[in-house]
Structure of SKI2 subunit of superkiller complex:
Amino acid sequence: MSEHGLSSRDPLDLPLSILEVGVAGRVELITDPPKEKGSICPLSTVPHGLPPYEVDVSYEVIQKYLGDPEWLSMHHFDRSERSWPRTVDSPSLLHMEVTAAHMELSVERNPATGELLGITEVLVDHTGLSAQNSLSLRRPPGPPTQSVRGSTSNFPFWPGGMDEPTLEQMKTVTEQEEVVDFENDLLTVPPGWKQGMNFRPTDVRRPLGVLPLTSLLGALDDFSLGDSSEDEEDVKRRVQPGKEDKKETLARSDSLEELGVTTASAPAPPPPASLPVDAANEQWAVPLNMYDPVDDFYKVIPQLAFKHPFELDPFQKKAVQCLEAGSSVFIAAHTSAGKTVVAEYAIALSLKHMTRTIYTSPIKALSNQKFRDFKNTFGDVGLITGDVQLYTGAACLIMTTEILRSMLYNGSDVVRDLEWVIFDEVHYINDAERGVVWEEVLIMLPDHVNIILLSATVPNTVEFADWIGRIKKKKIYVISTTRRPVPLEHFLYTGNSQKTQNQFFLLQDASGAFQTKGYYAAVDAKKERSSKYSQTFGARHPHGGGAGHDKGTWLSLVQSLRQRDALPVVVFTFSRVRCEQNAAALTTLDLCNTSERSEVQTYYTKCLSRLRAEDRRLPQVLYMLDLLKRGIGIHHSGILPILKEVVEMLFSRGLVKILFATETFAMGVNMPARTVVFDSIRKHDGSMFRDLTPGEYIQMAGRAGRRGLDNTGMVIILCKSDVPEMSDLHKMMLGKPTHLHSQFRLTYSMILNLLRVEALRVEDMMKRSFAESRMQKDSKAHEQRIKLLTKSLRDMGDIECTGDLADLPDYFVTVNELIHTRELLQKRVVESINGMKCLSVGRVVIIRTDYHPWVPGVILQVSSDATNRVYTTLVLSEKRKGGGAEPGEKEKTSPPTPDDLLMGKVFRPEGPSDHKLLKLHATDVLLVTGKTLRVHADKVLDDIARSQTPRYRNDPPGPAVSAVTQELSRLSDLPPGSLTSLCPVNDLQLKDMDVVEAVSRVRRLEGALRGFSCPNSPRFNTQYRLVEQRSNLMDELDRLRFLTSDQALSLLPEYQQRVKVLRTLQYIDDGGAVQLKGRVACEVSSHELLVTELVLDGALSPLTPEEIAALLSCLVFQHKTQCEPRLTDTLKEGIKKVRALAERLAEVQRQCGLKESVEDYVAQYKFGLTEVVYEWARGMPFSEIMTLTDIQEGLIVRCVQRLDEACRDVRSAARLVGDATLCAKMDSTSQLIKRDIVFAASLYTQ
């Protein structure tokens, strides 16, 4: 077959069949085809048929001819290939789909008789819509393959609460758009024609003619004398069409059946509370009082959608009432308080209403756990994660928040049927890396979707709910409770041996009271033991006694808890290494009996039975089995995912007595323990060591206490070395939990996904972020204020400034600029070192008061507050007579004149002089003079304080005050110009460019003041106040317009910089339209710029699938390793290309204004797992993989799983650009890495 070519079968060739005759192996050729399906006679009489001697000819021909064209013989090509002439069908190129009709005919009939009254044309909205051009829910569904995850070419559905563009906004023409007026600028005369169409309205006049008698008789036939089928009001409107009926008539029924008695359906229960609506200050968050009884719960809701086997708590009943009313709720409660009950009821409601619910969680492991729980309860539940999609058509879908964000951006049709979206662990929004995802999802959800938020207790629940309600324009009912179903008792433990194993000291009782007595008792016990130890063995290391000391502590603690029947216990340890060390210290214990060990062995073997034999012999697998048989478990990110699930399931069964876990275990499903132990109250958060925050401590401590089993939960803080400070413990245990803060940030993916939809703007997304909630909260009030100010300006009209007032506007501008420049200059003087030295006690300064613009004073005291320094100053004043006003105070409203602004004669009292003590800031000081006085400041202040008392109020000033007053009066008598001010440049040596320019500007403005003639006009005061009033109105109007504009957004500069980056890299054009590179980037979920450049530059195409997987590992690996990978030359060259490309991208970002340095941007791509991934893709067993690196097993598995998601992103990008070779390689790459224990199915999905 390989030497001779076979020609293709001709339609005229005869068919050929082989028939076996007899049992001796004789065969005959049959040329007649069978007349029916099947054979004419049996093809074989041998019991097992003819032995196979060669591959079926037809199969081999099809495989080689169609699957491998290179096999075709070049010597017999005339017999190997045959072509048929193609029939040309040119008209098929002219085929065009019929445009959907924009109008339809509506028939109007008499409702009683069915008589045809008329036919009218009705405009049909939403025609020609599709997922690629519309954000409407009325658009047709997309292909079934895109129904769940959507497509990057789809438009998202219109976000709820976001106003659609107004007519004025749509008429706004951008710089790139051509102005075309379709009403006035249309051409009506075609080229070469003398005249064209005339669109001007004309009056149509009908000529008078002779009316035929038949038409008149026909009109009489149509005249009705009160037919019962015709409404009297219709007759009146027909007779008097120009008049409108001003009285409402009773509604009439079109059918007699509708007049019968109907049964009233039970109305939906109203929300428990509501707030008055105010257009400007509407409160969208409605807090519900948890102390109000819910006695009428079963009367309002007689038939529950889901019945629990226990009585609901009050907060759960209030939440159920809100759900039945179709309202959104925000529930903040402690761990294990029963928040999941609300989620379960929402799922049951969606099943009842035949709608859908999405449950989102922050981590994939929690999604798997919730899938198992809800699947057992409801059945119709699906799961969507990065690598698993189960039952995607179910009524309830479990997924991570990132998956939901992708579905919203990609216009998934699942959103159409959504009734509820449940956000679990909402306090995770504080996560700096992933918190932005929650805000994006909340903003993008359509209007018909209701929201359920489940969170731990946070202080600003109302603020957060008000933000959500404002952006979605719907009420959010806040249900917050601090009650725990099982109260907690907190202890300090100082024991470390059998003698001291019962040293538990109560620090906080079940009522929440802090026990100071218990704290001091723990301190005394620690000191006593340290003293005895130092007397016997010498001084101990201040931080504890090392591993041996820790082992003694754990052994004594576990024995004591075992005797108290306080197991199981969860030990929170903030280090993976410490978890394993603590577990190793208890290997001498055996906390399980024989039957429990047998059950652990059986269950462990069953769970791992699907793994390969060599994977079941991994060191971590064998070590974990030995620990679990002793009743000890370990749970952290370094453990294999399947082993973590085994530990969780055994813990829920009560077979794990003590579990050493990191903080992530506190975010899992409801797995409470009898006791919670803190190995330490300090953790490393990635940048530094710090104490636990109150929110972190409450979240982990809440795992103590099993509802229905324990009266109280036990929380223990180990004191291995010294007892923590009381203030630190009090702050951690009784302090307020961390507020919910916005972590909103701009990403290239978000910008590109919004730019590809013209109707959505990135600025609108930023406006609706939680970071801008306070600014947007006042936006309606600002808009109303803008309308009022605009009306006031319109009513004010133009101000007359003619004649000698012609220069009044310029004079007003000059005065305000001078005052503003002086304030800025004075601020710089005070902030300088020399300025602070000059503004000391005894310095003479000039200030402006209500009674004179130039008043001398002397500084008596300077506050120590560096940020807001206050100067206590004694100034001259006029002595009051009979308690009247200061002379000249009535003139304080007069406008400033050049004499007021230019220093001339300083204030001198006309009669007896007096004094005032003022508290001044730096901006209140006009001039700092070169004069200083020797004053006894303390005596002066004492004299003034003494004169303020009622007994000495009428006494003359003290000698110290009199001396200062006389000295100031003497300075006032000096000729004008004698009191010179210190020059900031020459005297204070301030050589900054802005200071020098400010001094020069002040001198120029002071010189210009003398040249104005308007101050001499008799109408100066009146007209100046009008100009000032108009200027203040315009300034306030400009300020409010700025606050309501996009320019007030805090992230707008960064957005403009990122847009500049995208424009430079040609992801978008100058008009903001997304180009091919931008659409490719939309396919990528993370590191979109680098992945897009790698695909379009062709850097991955020449590589093998194994090498591609190794290089892409830099996108998912973020840990540190001490092992240097051994790489091939191709991989080394590939790493250089990736880093060079990253440097180029970072340099573009830096040139466009972004602050991230080139080094930091390149350093985020780590290649420490390159060799591991390369060998794994080549088929190396996992046991040998662990010899190549010091990274723990669980971290490797997690990185390879995330790598598969990155491979799918690259495959989608390659498909979009038409790179079939790379697309096929990415499929191969995914297949190579998806094997064995790394991609073992979750136990929760089995």
